[in-house]
Amino acid sequence: VSASEGEQAETIATACRLLAYLGLVRETTGHVSARVDNEYMLIRCRGSQEAGLVFTAAEAVQKVRFEGAGMTRGTSQYETPSELPIHGEMYLARPEVNAVVHAHPRASLVCTLAGLPLLPIFGSFDVHAMALAEIGIPVFPRSILIRDRALGRQLVAAMDGKPACIMRGHGITTVGATVQEATIRAIHLETLASVTLDVARAGGKLEPISEEDREYFRKLRETQDKKHQAHGQDILQWTWRHYTKLLAVHEAGRR
Ligand SMILES: [Zn+2]
Predict the structure, then answer these.
(1) Residue 166: enclosing H or E segment and its boundaries?
(2) How far is the CA of 219 from the centre of ligand 1 (A)?
(3) Is 96 considered catalytic here?
(4) Between 20 and 30 A from 223 (CA), which of 31, 34, 141, 250?
């Protein structure tokens, strides 16, 4: 295990505990992975002492081939998630993707069941969630477990190169250039779903903000993208720091 793989395993474990703490994953379901190279990924697995994602330790993060075989990081006491093809097929098909999050968050789930579209219904409240809606959030129509490579490829095709998708009667999948980015996208996606659900429950109409305001955010994103190229992804780093500090405080209180 290289030092950087050990560090990645820690980040993946932190992401799993954070998603559990925020309620995006429950019990023992959901997983986070990161690309190692063009053949291997690090992915959260289940061990003999499995107790759910909220208790994920870095030891549960194993190095496996995209196809699932050849576990190299730990020992056979860990087994890969049954939905491993979500991750493996994504890395095989999309070279720009370095991290994948698969979770079963409630509001996103209910939106798929209620047939509620995820639209750019708000602006400044959460510009990152709004950006996901502008890019478009495809719906994967099947509710079954993605347990084989053919289904994995169907999911990848349904995502159509987008950063996030919702899976009817199942959950969500988000991707990113880093574990941090994929994780924060999952959080923002669930925020969008939860506001969408509240609007529908309040009897409101789900419609995008005005074209003029959408144009304003398109311009803002272009400027920010340029700024990110110059100064690094500040907002992403701040948001990740915010959530991991919250998690650390929560975990310190639990001890
Ligand atoms: Zn699932």
Answers:
(1) strand 164-167
(2) 36
(3) no
(4) 34
pLDDT tens for residues 149-158? 999 999 999 9
Residue 230 makes CB contacts below 8 A (sequence gap 6+) with: none
CA distance 27 to 54: 8
Residue 217 Cα to ligand 1 midpoint, Å, equals 33
CA 145 – ligand 1 centroid, Å? 6
Sign for the CA dihedral angle at 152, 60, 235, 254 comes to positive
Beta strands in 72-130 (DSSP E): 99-103
Alpha-carbon distance 130 to 119, whole Å?
A: 8
72-87: per-residue pLDDT in tens? 555 558 888 889 999 9
Of 39, 59, 67, 83, the catalytic one is 83
Average predicted confidence (pLDDT) for the chain: 91
